[in-house]
Write a structure and sequence with these properties.
The protein is α/β, with parallel strands linked by helices. It folds into three domains: 139 residues, Alpha-Beta Plaits; 160 residues; 206 residues, Rossmann fold, CATH 3.40.50.300. The strands form three sheets. It has an eight-stranded mixed sheet, with helices on both faces. Strand 10 and strand 11 form a beta hairpin. The longest helix is centred in the N-terminal third of the chain and has 53 residues. The protein starts with a helix and ends in a 6-residue tail after the last helix.
Length: 662
């Protein structure tokens, strides 16, 4: 409950800062909206699906979700943007386009931003077309080499087929030598073709070996003395990407085609060797048979090449992932920026958060005493008084003094607070009477003189003989509060120039005896430490029920020197001003001097802080009510009182505030 009250107190304390921060944040958000360019946003969706020939049960290939993720990264690349710019005829920035995969789906959402809504929709729709064409061209390039190679081989085989058909038709004795030369030439061509095929097969097998965790055993023909062993079925690794998968299938298909063609060329090679007659004997029937066999082999090769070309084209069509537009982009009607309301709200939140952080930092850095709990925590002393704010009035020299407030406002909460302080002092003197009381503070301007004069006046109301001593021999102020002359006082007693009865002034009704400071000496600390001061205090102690002494603040050594000679010390702490460290140092010095510290008085307690102190809040609510406001106005009282009663009251007021005789 106490922490909640503290939070409420901090909220009330820093509310002005929070309001300023919120207003500045709102203004900043609005100004930011004014300088933001107008941006429109539209989006389109495309569907990505796997290739037709990809087996969904094959665990080592990427699944469709991974393929969609790959395409999401590919769309916003430089080459596609370059093609898009060429298609549109104007420049499109990379930051204008963003792509995301719809969660747990094969949909890709393409978002485009632009200052023109029509142009934003056009960019989005054109980008989908460019990407689909790019993907198609990319797949075409993968099979272009195989297609071109097969087409070249088909053209060459067609030439050979036509040649052997002509040879069979023109077979004669006269063409034997020419045929022999052509056979030798064909044998050389077949040898080159076989050598080229073997090299390409070895290269493809090496490339395929990179797709497997261990070297790939091949069936490549070896020397005649080496007997080849069957190739075990390869097991692909589970890390192939979609692009690697397509490449693997392409290489495997090309390898199978080359091996089939190699075998056919071997048959042609063997048949041509038979057509090379080493003995020069010409047999037309045998020659015709060999030419027909060779022609049949070339026709079979031609058929196989056509089948391989068709297979490559089919594989190209089946291996390409499908990309299709699902939802076309439309021109947006409302821009996504600027959004003044959103920016103002964000500015408000940011401003409040910054001011909250600032207030929190200031509270952490604040090392002053603010509450009774902090007094108990850091000083280990009881709080025996809570004094509210007293309105100050200006004296003739311009300084501000509050006067004796309890005498002028006997029913105010301030007077009640001093009565509570008086009662607490009475309780503190039960076991050990307090005849002399020193009032001091850590620093100047913390209200010790105000407490001293008002406490003396409230003590006198209990029909006690009170002596108010101004022991501040550096900057005395008691005479300003009481309106007395400071020509004679304590320094005259210390110089033994007069007796105490001659420097005592009577003030107020009921009266209090006042001993002012007198002329300021050059050595106040030595005078207060002297035995003469001890004898003066003892003499005054015997003459009064209680002696209240006002001293300088603890920034000088005077209160420390005087504290050991007093029955008790009352420490004045101003909430929010008195430093914790300085108060602790003062307490340590007082303890070393042997002083008896009665407690702490918090003065002044601000009206804004009064909610924290329940009892003071009760009196404040009563004091600042309308009925008491009317009671405070002296002019109202004078208008309502009869003439005789009015005169009697004025006489009593004059007696109460009269200047004592010198």
């Amino acid at each position: 409950m106490v922490e909640l009250k503290q939070y409420i107190y901090l909220l009330r304390k820093w509310l002005w800062l929070f309001l300023i921060g919120g207003l500045l944040g709102c203004a900043a958000g609005y100004l930011f909206s004014l300088y933001q360019p107008t941006i429109y946003e539209t989006s389109t969706k495309i569907l990505v699906s796997r290739a037709i020939d990809q087996d969904s049960q094959t665990y080592y290939f990427f699944n469709e979700l991974q393929l969609a993720k790959t395409y999401a990264q590919l769309i916003n690349t430089g080459l596609i943007l370059q093609n898009l710019n060429q298609e549109l005829g104007f420049e499109v920035g990379k930051d204008q386009i963003s792509v995301r995969q719809v969660e747990d789906s094969l949909l890709l959402e393409i978002t485009v931003r632009d200052s023109d809504p029509e142009r934003a929709a056009r960019i989005a729709n054109t980008l989908v077309e460019v990407f689909i064409n790019y993907n198609r061209d990319l797949q075409d390039k993968r099979f272009a080499e195989s297609e071109q190679s097969l087409k070249d081989q088909i053209a060459e085989v067609q030439t050979n087929v036509a040649y052997y058909q002509g040879q069979i038709e023109n077979l004669s004795q006269s063409s034997l030598e020419e045929q022999k030369q052509q056979v030798v030439k064909r044998i050389q061509e077949i040898e080159k073709q076989l050598s080229s095929s073997e090299e390409e097969i070895i290269q493809l097998e090496n490339e395929l070996a990179d797709f497997f965790p261990s070297p790939l055993v091949t069936n490549t023909p070896a020397p005649y003395w080496f007997k080849p062993t069957p190739t075990p079925a390869p097991v692909p690794t589970p890390t192939l990407s979609p692009q690697e998968e397509v490449r693997y299938k392409e290489l495997q298909l090309r390898l199978d085609q080359l091996k089939s063609l190699r075998d056919l060329y071997k048959d042609v090679y063997a048949n041509l060797l038979v057509l090379d007659p080493n003995n020069g004997v010409y047999d037309p029937a045998l020659t015709q048979q060999q030419l027909q066999t060779t022609l049949a082999l070339y026709q079979q090769i031609y058929s196989n090449l056509l089948s391989s070309l068709a297979n490559v084209q089919l594989a190209k069509a089946r291996s390409a992932p499908s990309i299709s537009a699902v939802e076309a982009a439309t021109p947006p009607a409302v821009p996504i920026q600027p959004k003044p309301l959103r920016n103002v709200l964000l500015g408000l939140i940011a401003g409040v958060m910054i001011t909250v952080l600032t207030a929190f930092t200031l509270e952490l850095l604040d090392d002053t005493i603010k509450t009774p709990e902090e007094v108990n925590q850091h000083l280990r002393l009881p709080v025996i008084g809570l004094i509210g704010e007293i309105e100050a009035i200006k004296s003739k020299n311009g300084a501000q003094y509050s006067g004796v407030f309890v005498a002028e406002n006997p029913l105010s909460p301030i007077a009640e607070a001093f009565r509570t302080l008086r009662a607490n002092l009475d309780f503190a003197s039960v076991d050990k009477p307090i005849k002399t009381l020193l009032i001091t503070s850590v620093g100047p301007g913390e209200g010790k003189s105000t407490v001293a004069v008002n406490l003396a006046a409230i003590m006198a109301q209990r029909e006690r003989k009170v002596i108010l001593l101004d022991a501040d021999l550096r900057r005395p102020t008691i005479h300003h509060y009481l309106g007395l002359s400071n020509r004679r006082g304590l320094t005259d007693l210390l110089r033994e120039q007069t007796k105490a009865v001659n420097v005592i002034s009577s003030w107020g009704n009921p009266p209090i005896d006042v001993i002012l400071s007198g002329d300021l000496p050059p050595n106040p600390t030595e005078l207060l430490e002297s035995e003469k001061m001890t004898r003066i205090l003892a003499e005054l102690k015997d003459e009064a029920d209680i002696l209240i002494a006002d001293s300088p603040p603890a920034i000088v050594a005077d209160p420390i020197a005087l504290s050991a000679k007093m029955d008790g010390v009352l420490l004045i702490v101003e909430p929010g001003k008195t430093k914790i460290g300085a108060a602790q140092v003062l307490l340590e010095q007082l303890h070393r001097a042997g002083a008896r510290i009665i407690g702490v008085v918090l003065n002044p307690v601000s009206r804004k802080r009064s909610h924290y102190y329940t009892k003071y809040h009760y009196y404040t609510s009563y004091y600042y009510s309308r009925s008491y406001d009317r009671y405070r106005r002296a002019s109202d009282f004078k208008e309502r009182l009869p003439a005789a009663d009015k005169g009697r009251r004025e006489t009593e007021s004059h007696i109460r505030h009269r200047t004592p005789k010198k």
